[in-house]
Amino acid sequence: MARREETEQERRRRIGILNARLPKKRNIAQGLLRNPAGEVLLCELSYKAEWDLPGGVVDPGEPPALTVTREIEEELGLRLPVGPLVAVNWLPPWRGWDDAHLFLFDLGVFAGELDPSLFLPREIAGAHWVRPEAAAEHVAPYTARMLEVVARAPAGGTLYLENSELPGG
C-alpha cells in the first residue's frame, strides 16, 4: 500500500505538537577574555552573589556566538570579535534552574581599558581581571571547574564537558 504524503498543514500541526512536548534546553553563551597578564575577565553581577564570565542567555532563534557579541556590547560597552568555540558544557539543574548548555567562546586578549561608565548598571556592578587559579574565590563551582579544565586542555579543538568535567574523568 502506498504511503500517503502529509500535507504542509498536517506537517506543521505534527511539529507543533512535538515542539510543545519535547524538552527545551536553556542555552547560555559566554566569552573567555584575557588580558596580556593572562588574567580572565569576570563580571560582578548586580543580581547574584557569584561573579561570572561575560555573556548571557541565548535568545530564541539567536546563534550563541551572536549572543556573546550582543551581551558584551550591551553590558560592558565593548565590541569584540568572537573567536573559536572553546567548550560546550552541559550543566545539570542548579539552584532552581533546569539543565542547560553553555557555549564558551574564545574572545582573545584585550589590552585596552575597561570603562565602567559604559557598563549596564542594572546587570553589571563591576568587571575584574582575575588570575585563573583565583577565579574559584568568586564564581559558581561549575564555572571554576570549567575554567580549570579549559586551562589544562591542549590548544585548539573544542571540549565537550558534562557538569564542567570531561566525560569519564
UniProtKB/TrEMBL annotation:
Please report the stretch or stretches of sequence annotated as the Nudix hydrolase domain. Answer: 23-152
Checking Gene3D superfamilies in the record gives: Nucleoside Triphosphate Pyrophosphohydrolase
Q: Name one Pfam family in it.
A: NUDIX
Locate the transmembrane regions by residue number.
none
Any single GO molecular-function term of the entry would be: hydrolase activity
Domain of life (superkingdom): Bacteria
Q: Which cofactor does the UniProt annotation name?
A: Mg(2+)
Query: What does the UniProt keyword field contain?
Result: Hydrolase, Magnesium
Family named by the database record:
Belongs to the Nudix hydrolase family.
- Write down what this protein is called: ADP-ribose pyrophosphatase YjhB (NUDIX family)
What lineage is this protein's organism placed in?
Bacteria, Bacillati, Actinomycetota, Actinomycetes, Micrococcales
